[in-house]
Specification:
Blueprint (H helix, E strand, L loop, with lengths): L1 H35 L1 H19 L6 H18 L6 H25 L2 H17 L10 H73 L6 H24 L8 E3 L6 E3 L3 H13 L3 E6 L3 H6 L2 H21 L5 E8 L7 E8 L22 H11 L3 E7 L3 E9 L2
Parallel strand pairs: 3-4
Antiparallel strand pairs: 1-2, 4-5, 5-7, 6-7
Catalytic activity: ATP + protein L-histidine = ADP + protein N-phospho-L-histidine
EC number: 2.7.13.3
Keywords: ATP-binding, Kinase, Membrane, Nucleotide-binding, Phosphoprotein, Transferase, Transmembrane, Transmembrane helix, Two-component regulatory system
Length: 405
């Protein structure tokens, strides 16, 4: 967007101005040639045209060859220049050449490749500092060096400005790359948290269909219907996760009656639990002790994180403890003073049978992606905490405490 805006400004305003100035420089050079001397006017005209060409048509005019041509013309003008015909006219022409060369130094420092910019800026700076010698050479070497050093200050300042602008652009590009990296990581985490939940349900239902298919074929059709529903849910989760890239609100779902999206929140937890209950064998207890007023007071980021904690915890139960007989999900507000919090807890009891036979529960060796670790970071960023570990004799508990302030 910024690049397109810059191109628009350059095309609509800067280029016409540069074209007018270039025409004026050529016309003025033709008029000043007989008065100021052609060996002073020609390098000035080349320097002005080169600086204006790079300023207005940087995308079409190669900056390094242009700078080389300007440097060569300036050097020849200094070495071969005649004594000024009229000191005042020649002095004005010389100052115009110095100004154009200084502008070109800034442009080279900003846009040219780093090595070429270092060499060209040095050469152009030296040439800009000695152009004034065409008018008069001081009587002593010390005075000559002092005069040249004074005029070199402009080139040094121009190079510093161009280098600073180059550094700003570099930081901007690095920031954009870091933002894209963070966005890709966030997308990966969302895919893990939501899609893995539905895909694991598909695997569990497919395994159940294999188990009952031989002895009870009439039970396969309902399982296939549930597999279809879970697959559609997984596809919807992937679509919503991609939509999240265009939504500043975070992980999003379609809002009722609207084409826009809204963030996952506390009301969606009940749907997650219901789908987990339908796809598994465990008894699932949900304690969602929240009134509509409580839901309204929970910040959007906290509600989205609470939803993700439940999704991740239930996914891990399905992966690593598929034979657990009881799962408890609790979402309750904490004390109202001094610091109100929202407490989210998901607990599963020890498996009632040994998990054998290739069920998903045997997949404990599979990597957990960024799930709990990423959620712990997210809870910490909100000022809360997330703890997980063994509970009772072989059970597991995930608990998140999220501040509401």
């Amino acid at each position: 967007m910024a690049t397109q805006s810059g191109n628009h400004v350059r095309g609509r305003l800067l280029r016409p101005v540069c074209a007018v100035l270039a025409t004026a420089a050529v016309a003025g050079g033709l008029l000043a040639g007989p008065v100021a001397g052609w060996r002073a006017v020609v390098p000035m005209t080349i320097a002005v045209l080169g600086a204006l060409a790079v300023t207005g048509w940087r995308d079409r005019v190669p900056i390094v060859p242009t700078a080389v041509v300007v440097a060569a013309a300036s050097a020849l003008g200094t070495v071969l220049g005649d004594p000024p015909v009229q000191r005042q006219s020649t002095g004005l022409v010389t100052l115009l050449e110095i100004g154009a060369t200084v502008l070109l130094v800034c442009l080279v420092a900003r846009y040219a490749a780093a090595r070429a910019a270092a060499v060209l800026c040095g050469v152009l700076g030296v040439l800009a500092s000695v152009v004034i010698l065409r008018l008069q050479v001081p009587p002593t070497l010390l005075e000559t060096a002092a005069q040249s050093a004074f005029f070199a200050l402009g080139a040094v300042a121009a190079g510093a400005v161009g280098g600073y602008l180059r550094a700003l652009e570099g930081r901007r590009l690095r920031s954009v790359q870091e933002a894209r990296r963070h966005q890709r990581l966030q997308l990966a985490r969302d895919l893990h948290d939501f899609v893995a939940h539905d895909v694991s349900a598909i695997v569990v239902l497919a395994q159940a269909a294999q188990v009952v298919g031989g002895d009870h074929p009439e039970k396969v059709l309902p399982l296939l219907s549930q597999i279809e529903s879970a697959g559609l849910q997984a596809l919807g989760s992937m679509d919503r996760t991609v939509q999240m890239l265009d939504d500043d609100a975070g992980t999003a779902v379609p809002a009722a009656g609207e084409g826009k999206t809204r963030a996952y929140g506390l009301p969606d937890i009940a749907d997650v639990v219901d789908r987990f209950r339908d796809a598994g064998r465990a008894e699932v207890r949900l304690d969602l002790d929240l009134t509509p007023d409580h839901v309204e007071r929970v910040p959007r980021e906290v509600a989205s994180t609470a939803h993700r904690v439940v999704v991740e915890a239930l996914t891990n139960i399905r992966r690593h403890a598929a034979a657990t007989p009881l799962v408890s999900v609790s979402v309750r507000p904490g004390p109202t003073a001094p610091d109100p919090v929202l407490t989210v807890s998901v607990t599963n009891s020890p498996p009632s049978i040994t998990e054998t036979g290739g069920l998903l529960g045997d997949g404990g060796r599979r990597g957990g992606g960024t799930g709990l670790a990423g959620l712990a970071e997210r809870a910490g960023a909100l000022g809360g905490s997330l703890e997980y570990g063994g509970h009772g004799d072989g059970g597991w508990r995930v608990t998140a405490v999220l501040p509401l302030g």
